[in-house]
Amino acid sequence: MQPTLEQKMWMYEKMVVSRRYEEAIAAAYMEGKSPVFNMANGPVPGEMHLSNGQEPCAVGVCAHLKDEDTVTATHRPHHQAIAKGVDLKRMTSEIFGKANGLGGGRGGHMHLFDDDVNFACSGIIGQGLGPAVGAALSQTMQKKSGIAVAYIGEGAANQGAFHESLNLAAVWNLPVVFIIEDNSWGISVSKQKSTAVEKNSVRAAGYGMPGEYVAGNDPLEIFKVAGEAIERARAGKGPTLLELQTSRLAGHFIGDAEGYRPEGEKDALEADDPITKFRSHLIEQGDATEQEIENIETAAQAQVDEAIAHARASEDPAPEDALTSVFA
Amino acid sequence: MSIDVIIPDDLWEEDNEGVITSWLVSDGATVEVGTLVAEVMVEKIQCEVESPAAGTIKITKEEDDVVNKGDVIAHIEA
Amino acid sequence: MSDTKERKLTIARAMAESVAQYMRKDEKVFVMGEDIGVLGGVYGNTRGLIEEFGEERIRDTPISETAFMGAAVGAAQNGMRPIVELMFVDFFGVCFDQIYNNMAKNIYFSGGNVKVPMVLMTSTGGGYSDGGQHSQCVYGTFAHLPGMKVVAPSNAYDAKGLMNAAIREDSPVVYMYHKGLQGMGWLGTERGATVNTPEEYYEVEIGKASVVREGTDVSIVSLGMGVHHALKAAAELEESGVSAEVVDLRSLVPLDRDTIRASVAKTGRLIVVDEDYHSFGVSGEVIASVVEHDISVLKAAPQRVAFPDVPIPYAKIMEQFCLPNADKIVATYKKMAA
Ligand SMILES: Cc1ncc(C[n+]2csc(CCOP(=O)(O)OP(=O)(O)O)c2C)c(N)n1
């Protein structure tokens, strides 16, 4: 399955928006946190998990999705949200804790909910797996055509919820695609130290579903394999497990000293940046000219700048708003 | 005789500023050579400052004060 | 000069020191949890342990909480003394069965034949905008369920003494440390938590509260971070001539009802400060211990300054609105005395 030119350019654009977005969020996050790094300070307080390097996993999968399809994302959700089409301004307002944010400032960066495109994320490892199965169940019971994608990190594949959810989706033959973004680290603990198998994709066999490992952090390869899995789901043939090799170019969260990383790992990953590689590919293949690529990049930056400016200019919630929205 | 407690040049790698997050002794306390006297945080990393001498410590920089390598943060009166 | 000799520790250091000292003398003690090895614990409370004791006794776990909590229960029943950490109390949902249905009940089910000598460390508290799955205290949830002792230190001295007592204890102890008291600069540490802490072994008895400030007009009862709010409020009240007593519970299970009652018998007024949710929790229990016992000592209806019954909001302005603080305590007293 090959992407059309339009799909290729869409993927590149979303990858660049995502990266520029993380850069802008990182800059905003550091405001008020230097020289004294206190998480409580600045316009974006709390923890911040960036997705730099993992963009291919977002675009290669979401390129196949429609609004009615559900995505449950992780604590590292920005790339997935952007690729799923979450409103960038409302998302940014949420991250800045503003009244016009997706959740009116109640959720924050780990709790982005956009009902218009059926996107949700969470801060508990493995929490989105069950809800993805449920969204697929709901679509099936309502005889609707939507499918569900559950994103997790490779560390989450050791959670009970992972195994239970795969089994449930399989026995009920539900249209779910489980996506593991394998960046090889769960905070400071390596995949090798935490996981009994080299590739989590082999675990699919235990639940009678196809499983595939995609190496290379390449959006085109991911597009192809994810496309087939999503087609299977849409055709009523049940769930699939995909594990996508990727790279965490940032720390676990901003401020992570990353003392646990082997010497040279970071440099090697940076030298292998998926955006740089995809950019070269597009030009080499004659998919786009240097000028066209630059136009995309300029537009991406403008979109990000606009979202950040929008969030900054937006109103704070009223303190008492904390007490509302507890019940429907 | 008074000996300065100085932020060592090799306490952290880069040349950025740090902040004293905790004094682990009070002003006027008796310290030994090597007593852990303060914690300094650089970005999110915590570094330890030890006393270079035995004696009574006179603290000159407070908690939350921003410090650079080479800064004097206390004196030890031997 | 030796009386001016002191050694202040942060709570993070006090916890790590207690564990290290205990591990040196008792080979049965080991530690497991997420990121407690090379990283030294997200909140610094296992710093230095892997360097000294190695990977055999300081075990980074997969993100498999049901498995390693269950493994801790099994190891404890089998002759070891595990210390197990789950870095945020908010995460317990994924493995709660092993805690409240297994760890907490096996001594009872066995008629006392089985021992479960394990310590479960976890961080509590918010105030730095980490959102509703990284900021809770849920003290009351643990204390409500029978079969586990629950402690929550407010300073390094108690942190070390309670940890020593917890490791020696043959029943499971849930050890809840507040992030804002750990001495991690990036969480904006409360200074009053970093106090003089002896190097030699000592214990703080589990189940004994401490009167950390004496007073005659009102008893402010709290735990963890709330104790520091209470002390600040007491200092402020003093300026308007009000003498506030502050009781640091230190343990929730067993709860030192005698100390609470004695304090309120003296002052006649009770304010409970709790960063946990308002209803069905610690604050209600503390009040009940007094009113069930002797209502005649009360000069005013007891009050609580607790987190409203809503999930913890992310936006700073909303979270701070919900959290207890010294001003709220002072205002509560003023209303009570009016
Ligand atoms: C149930 C639960 N346990 C532990 C954590 C703490 N935690 C947050 S992120 C993380 C590592 C996750 O690793 P992985 O799933 O590989 O995702 P990545 O961070 O690499 O994107 C851990 C242990 C949590 N949030 N929830």
From TrEMBL, chain A:
Cofactor(s) it depends on: thiamine diphosphate
GO molecular function: pyruvate dehydrogenase (acetyl-transferring) activity
GO biological processes: pyruvate decarboxylation to acetyl-CoA
Region spans: Disordered: 309-328
UniProt entry keywords in alphabetical sequence: Oxidoreductase, Pyruvate, Thiamine pyrophosphate
Signal peptide: none
Keyword Oxidoreductase among record annotations: yes
Keyword Cell cycle: no
Pfam families: E1_dh
PANTHER family recorded: PYRUVATE DEHYDROGENASE E1 COMPONENT SUBUNIT ALPHA, PYRUVATE DEHYDROGENASE E1 COMPONENT, ALPHA SUBUNIT BACTERIAL AND ORGANELLAR
Protein name as it appears in the record: Pyruvate dehydrogenase E1 component alpha subunit
TrEMBL record, chain B:
Top-level taxon of the source organism: Bacteria
CDD domains: lipoyl_domain
Gene3D superfamilies: 2.40.50.100
InterPro entries the record matches: 2-oxoA_DH_lipoyl-BS, Biotin_lipoyl, Single_hybrid_motif
Keyword set includes Hydrolase: no
Keywords recorded for this protein, A-Z: Lipoyl
Domain Lipoyl-binding residues, every copy: 2-77
Coiled-coil portions: none
Keyword RNA-binding: no
Entry cofactors: (R)-lipoate
Name this protein carries in UniProt: Biotin-dependent enzyme
Species this chain originates from: Cocleimonas flava
Source species taxonomy: Bacteria, Pseudomonadati, Pseudomonadota, Gammaproteobacteria, Thiotrichales
Automatic annotation (TrEMBL), chain C:
SUPFAM superfamilies reported for this sequence: Thiamin diphosphate-binding fold (THDP-binding) (SSF52518), TK C-terminal domain-like (SSF52922)
Keyword ATP-binding: no
One GO MF term: oxidoreductase activity
Record key words, sorted: Oxidoreductase, Pyruvate, Thiamine pyrophosphate
InterPro entries: THDP-binding, Transketo_C/PFOR_II, Transketolase-like_Pyr-bd, Transketolase_C
Positions of the Transketolase-like pyrimidine-binding domain: 9-184
Cofactor: thiamine diphosphate
Record keyword Oxidoreductase present: yes
PANTHER family: PYRUVATE DEHYDROGENASE E1 COMPONENT BETA SUBUNIT, PYRUVATE DEHYDROGENASE E1 COMPONENT SUBUNIT BETA
Primary role: The branched-chain alpha-keto dehydrogenase complex catalyzes the overall conversion of alpha-keto acids to acyl-CoA and CO(2). It contains multiple copies of three enzymatic components: branched-chain alpha-keto acid decarboxylase (E1), lipoamide acyltransferase (E2) and lipoamide dehydrogenase (E3).
Protein's recorded name: 2-oxoisovalerate dehydrogenase subunit beta
Source organism of this protein record: Cocleimonas flava
